[in-house]
Amino acid sequence: MASYPFRFGVALLGAVGSAADWQARVRQAADLGYDIVHVADHLPTLAPFPSLVAAASVPGPRLGTLALNTGLYRPAVLARDVADTNRLIEGRLELGLGTGHSPADYEAAGLPLGRPGLRVDHVEQTITELRRLVDPMPPLLVAASGRRMLRLAAREADIVGLIVVTPDSEQFIADRIEFLRSAASDRFDQLELNLSVLSVIFTDGDPDLTFTRQLLPGQSDEQLRASPGVLIGSVSQVAETLLRYREKYRLTYFSVIEPYMKDFAKVIERLR
Amino acid sequence: MTRNFRFGIILFSKGTRSVWQDIARRVEDLGYDVLLVPDHVPMCAPFPALMSAAAVTTRPLLGTMVLATGLYNPVLLARDVAQVYELTDGRFELGLGTGWMAGDFEATGLPFPLGRSALRTCTTTEVTRMLREAGHRVPVLIGAGGGRMLTLAAKHADIVSINDAPGIVPRGEPGHNKLPHGLLAERIGFLRQVAGDRFEQIELCLVLCSVHIAGSGEPDLGMARALYPGLSDEELLRLPGVQHGSEQDIADSLRQLRETQGITYFAAMEYGGNLEAFGKVISQFR
To answer: Which residue ranges form the domains of chain A, and what is each CATH number?
Structure first.
């Protein structure tokens, strides 16, 4: 069975500012040991491709989208941005595609949100077009939570990005990995498996869930604490959790968001 | 008021990071004021290309000449524009056009009727309005030839690039399929009339499809032939967008265009030997 080494990513959030400010943030991520810097895709900011090209002045980490809101793009125009960005950043691009889950983004763009099935269809058509138009195609991450996206990811992705958005326990991961294993069949061993970490809280007492509550509104503190994307404990306990995720689920690639960049770096250090 | 001259180059090159950035450095070294990229599928993606050029240059402005606005969702386009403006510390000029090559629309799976000029004009208005409302001070250039786009440009543009190719004007509008000689003056006259008091604030731009220094072989008129079909080479050589002569002759010809037409911004296409040739002409002005 193919075994991937651990990889760690950080998603930089919010306004980009000047090139110097932006590159300083990218450099910090690189210095802290992150393998990849991610940008998300929301309106009104930030613009993924110009940001990634500007980030490329900092050598080292791969640069990726986690994940593009695929429904906002016309495949042929997207294909051009993907191919040229990847060439201009010398093959450091990792392309993450998702269905887009924020109604606010569709509303801002003046586009209909569409039912989930249609959004999955659009991702599938986009992948087909990208494979036709983009050569070489960068590594493709498909962000998935529901079954349809998991099936698509099982067929098409190099990397599957799991996102835990509903209240759930670790059983969420177990179920989805099992589903993915059976959908991917022979391909399963080749897939690199990524988990979006929502919070990293170092404490031996009651965790401060203020920020986590904003990320997962409407869930009780108990649900938040039980979420597999919320990592709570000492540095070594969090590291042990990730070792267990690797052992049990083959998850080897973990992405955090910028507010946890420094804290999570201590876990990275422990796992190298 | 006489404006200062500005000189731009519209880059068609596409290459690896190092090839592309070498060209960007060369553009800066040759003294160009503006480094421009066009917008066709499958040419280079405009915003990634400009960000990559920004990383290795400090002086020239960066711009689009011009975006095929009809290909974009206005909200997403405004996001890219705001971001590039920010990341280049304001070294950015936004050039918008309707998009006029049917092939670009076909390549993107948009039926060309969707890109009909009236609709494309709406998108241009929309993007310009959004940028202004968001408080972005990005200078807006509008590429215009037909009456509707000139009228739009008169209202919104800081810079107007006058297109004097006859085919640019939709069927049924004045100037459609007319011989291009004299069209430049006619279209500037129209712009002056519709812009009224605003005309004095507008910088006028002309795209040069051929810049050829005499004594260095024959001029390459391939681009001119494609843009102005049906004209003899002799007719092509008399067009304002086709410059041929010594460095001094061409510089004088541009001074005359400023004198007679009020055009102060000249942007050459990177075609044939134009990049280096126009660089020599620019040095006549420094």
So the answer is: 7-271 (3.20.20.30)
